[in-house]
């Protein structure tokens, strides 16, 4: 482990910085609020998959990792989908400002 850390020191420093800032932010916002937002985002993802998905997915392997890509219908923006915005999450804008 020490050899890897020494070899990838810049990566290790970046990882530690962002990991610590993430957990500081979680403590500030609160674990319960973060979990509520995670649940909202999961329901949004499910809705997008149901409305936009074809029901099929493409699987592929790369460097011993299996990836699943869900195939989307072309041009499936609906009123239901556009009305279901990130603003349902009160901290959604808080997250977005860091992007």
What's a concise summary of this model?
The protein has 99 residues and is an alpha+beta fold.
The number of helical segments is 5
How would the global form be characterised?
A: flat
Nearest-integer average pLDDT: 76
Would you report the number of β strands? 2
**Biggest sheet layout:** 2 strands, antiparallel
The N- to C-terminal Cα distance equals 31 Å
The whole-angstrom Rg is 18 Å
Q: What structural class results from the helix and strand content?
A: alpha+beta
Low-confidence stretches: none
| Helix-strand sequence | HHHEEHH
Protein architecture, described:
With 99 residues, the chain is an alpha+beta fold. 60% of the residues lie in helices and 18% in strands. It contains five helices and two strands, in the order H-H-H-E-E-H-H. The protein has helices spanning 2-7, 9-29, 31-52, 79-83, 92-96; strands at 53-62, 65-72. The protein has a two-stranded antiparallel ribbon. Strand 1 and strand 2 (65-72) form a beta hairpin. The longest helix has 22 residues, at 31-52. It starts with a helix and ends with a helix.
């Amino acid at each position: 482990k020490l050899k890897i850390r020494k070899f990838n020191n810049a990566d290790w420093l970046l990882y530690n910085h962002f990991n610590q800032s993430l957990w500081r932010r979680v403590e500030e916002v609160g674990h319960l609020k973060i979990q509520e937002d995670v649940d909202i985002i999961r329901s949004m993802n499910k809705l997008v998959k149901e409305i936009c998905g074809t029901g099929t997915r493409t699987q592929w392997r790369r460097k011993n990792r299996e990836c699943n890509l869900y195939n989307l219908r072309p041009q499936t923006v609906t009123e239901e989908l556009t009305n279901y915005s990130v603003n349902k999450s009160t901290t959604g804008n808080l997250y977005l400002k860091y992007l």
